[in-house]
Amino acid sequence: MRVGQGVDAHRFAADRRLVLGGVTIPYELGLAAHSDGDCVMHAVTDALLGAIGAGDIGQHFPDTDPAYAGVDSRRLLRAAVALARERGWATVNMDATIIAQRPRLADHLPAMRDCFAADLGIEAEAVNLKATTTEQMGFTGRGEGIAAMAVVLVARTDAP
Ligand SMILES: [Zn+2]
Fold it and tell me: What sequence ranges are listed for the domain 2-C-methyl-D-erythritol 2,4-cyclodiphosphate synthase (predicted)?
């Protein structure tokens, strides 16, 4: 087995949809990025790439590449899952923490969980998502953006 971690953050911007964990969340601000700005999806993708020793999301999907402009970040995770499969790795479980002062995310976590379970090819029970604030401290606390951290565990698919 191997483990990988991922960390990501994006700043809030007007006239953007807020997409977190594959779920569109009603809010007056979205996250600025070349892609859809889904920092939770990016953190999990980086964690998976880390677990299989495949570098990071920027190497595989450069933000200078017009092909990824406004891309649904679930596509990036699915591409990383395909790469992991090619290399003989399957995801065992994942755990992610979203750091946001607002909006409140608790009600949206189950839908995010379903997205990750589908994309990673694991049971919903093997996907854990948490949302926390930083009690008004730092850039997330001041409402300037949202950050996410994730760990992913993988196992050899040819293991006995
Ligand atoms: Zn990102």
Answer: 1-154
55 CA from centroid of ligand 1 (Å): 15
Per-residue pLDDT averaged across 30-52, rounded?
A: 97
Question: Cβ distance 155 to 90 under 8 Å?
Answer: yes
159 alpha carbon to ligand 1 midpoint, in Å?
33
| Contact criterion met (CB below 8 Å) for 60 and 6 | no
Strand 23-25 relative to strand 89-99: parallel, antiparallel, unpaired? unpaired
Q: Per-residue pLDDT tens for 108-133?
A: 999 999 999 999 999 999 999 999 99
Q: CA 126, CA 95: separation in Å to the nearest integer?
A: 8
Residue 28: count other Cβ atoms within 10 Å of its Cβ: 9
Q: Which fold has domain 2-156?
A: 60s Ribosomal Protein L30; Chain: A; (3.30.1330)
Domain borders along the chain are: 2-156
Residue ranges at the known binding site for a divalent metal cation: 8, 10, 42
Kindly give, in sequence order, each residue whose CB lies less than 8 Å from that of residue 149, ignoring residues fewer than 6 positions away. Answer: 5, 6, 7, 43, 96, 97, 99
